[in-house]
Design a protein that fits this description.
Mitochondrial carrier mediating the transport of coenzyme A (CoA) in mitochondria in exchange for intramitochondrial (deoxy)adenine nucleotides and adenosine 3',5'-diphosphate. By secondary structure, this protein is mostly helical. It contains 14 helices and no strands. It is globular.
């Protein structure tokens, strides 16, 4: 994606949107640039939707029935009891996780597109649908594998009172001492199983919509509000497809503080279905995800592309040298 929005001079809009950059341009765009743009995009997106994300997690890990009314009541009670900034409790842990996660995801996505393009014979051209989906899935899997313990810590901080954990390091220490180091990877399997369709569908949808947009409008670069719309659609489809595994992941991550015992992915899923039902259990909080998910993904993709364009212009003006 990082190489999809730069070349205004190419004859075909499709190539301008989804192809890799010309060789001269590639020399100016480095892995470090992708890491920087991805980190900033992830931080902005997650900060915007942090209160909704925290509320969703609280409902996911409890047996309380979800509704929009109850969700906003929880937000209001949290604000009245602990103050406005308490709505962002756990966001520091989120930033510690999401900055490297987003940086690795976007940067590795660029590299996987380059590798798959060469393997499938599309080097320097737009990838066909399956390699495009595969590049997104591999990027998400790579990022999740390298940052998973931070996601575990973030979930714990989101659902526990302030007195239980004082900071991120305290969470790591207490979990390791009281529950064992393996607990830091509890819920890893459903995370990876969920990331594969989520990340693949999200990247695939976003780039496909940009491709269709370029073919229809003959413009290589969408406007910012169009990028937001494309990202929102991508997030809506991707999160809806993988949401049950997200619920399973959160239940397994927070078992140590909720008093529940979950042994496996299928076992956790079966317990949720038996106790709460399919829709009210595995899809609890999905309606809130339909609000926060598209916002987060739209902001993330848009910020990444705009940062990418800004850095590219700065390279052209000679501000950076590699």
């Amino acid at each position: 994606m990082a190489h999809t929005v730069q070349d205004h001079q190419m004859a075909q809009p499709q190539a301008a949107v989804l192809s890799l950059p010309p060789s001269g341009q590639a020399k100016r765009w480095t892995v470090l640039d992708s890491l920087l743009c991805g980190a900033f995009a992830g931080a902005v997106a997650k900060t915007v939707i942090a209160p909704l994300d925290r509320t969703k997690i609280i409902f996911q890990v409890s047996s309380q029935r979800f509704s929009a009314k109850e969700a906003f009541r929880l937000l209001y009670c949290t604000y009245m009891k602990d103050g406005f900034l308490s709505l962002w409790r756990g966001n520091s842990a989120t930033m510690v996780r999401v900055i490297p996660y987003a940086a690795i995801q976007f940067s590795s996505h660029d590299q996987y597109k380059r590798i798959l393009g060469g393997y499938f014979g599309f080097q320097g051209k737009a990838l066909p649908p399956f390699p495009r989906f595969l590049a997104g899935s591999l990027a998400g899997t790579t990022a999740a594998m390298l940052t998973y313990p931070l996601d575990m810590v973030r979930a714990r901080m989101a659902v526990t009172p302030r007195q239980m954990y004082s900071n991120i390091l305290h969470v790591f220490v207490r979990i390791t001492q009281e529950e064992g180091i393996k607990t830091l990877y509890r819920g890893f399997c459903p995370t990876i199983l969920g990331v594969i369709p989520y990340s693949g569908i999200t990247f695939f949808t976003y780039e496909t919509l940009k491709n269709l947009h370029a073919e229809r409008t003959r413009r290589s670069q969408p406007y910012s509000y169009e990028r937001l719309a494309f990202g929102a659609c991508a997030g809506l489809i991707g999160q809806s497809a993988s949401y049950p595994l997200d619920v399973v992941r959160r239940r397994m991550q927070t078992a140590g503080v909720t008093g529940q015992q979950y042994g496996s992915v299928l076992g956790t899923m079966k317990t949720i279905v038996v106790q709460e039902g399919v829709v009210r259990g595995l899809y609890k909080g999905l309606s809130m995800n339909w609000i926060k998910g598209p916002i987060a993904v739209g902001v993330s993709f848009t910020t990444f592309d705009l940062m990418h364009n800004l850095l590219h212009k700065m390279h052209q003006l000679g501000y950076f040298t590699h």
